[in-house]
Amino acid sequence: MITREATEKDLEILLEFEQGIVFAERPFNSTLIDGEIHYYDLNEFIKSPDATLIVVEDDDEIVASGYALIKTSEKDYNNFKSYAYLGFMYVKPEYRGKGINKIITDELVSWSTSRGITEVRLDVYAENESAVKAYEKAGFEPLLLTMRLKS
């Protein structure tokens, strides 16, 4: 398996991955609208100097994806000015459980640290136990739990 930066030629499969993420997240988020949803501007991640969108290939087939985006801290009291936000983490179902998410995470963290970024964050649904465990294996720890009340 190899990792590489995504290109515009990869957009068709990446858009399929995006819908796979939406499908996987629907059970954890009752606020999502029905139908097709687009979370990301994938083309922007490909072009932006402040982002990297990577894919993992197995025998010339794209089997996984993830991005890192450098963001500015919105809080003046944080001890960091910028951080890397990771997202679009998707592994095809038949490739899950093989350490591919860790490969992606390591690659994105490495990209971030090469740009002087020491703070790396991501969001995961608290009830998505398999994803939480995967990120904990990669060294992440819970920081904040967002709660909601539907009135």
TrEMBL record:
Where are the coiled-coil regions?
Answer: none
Species name for this entry?
Chryseobacterium rhizosphaerae
Q: What Pfam families does its record include? A: Acetyltransf_1
Q: Which Gene3D superfamilies match?
A: 3.40.630.30
Organism phylogeny? Bacteria, Pseudomonadati, Bacteroidota, Flavobacteriia, Flavobacteriales
Keyword entries, A-Z: Acyltransferase, Transferase
Q: Which ranges carry the N-acetyltransferase domain?
A: 1-151
Q: What is this protein called?
A: GNAT family N-acetyltransferase
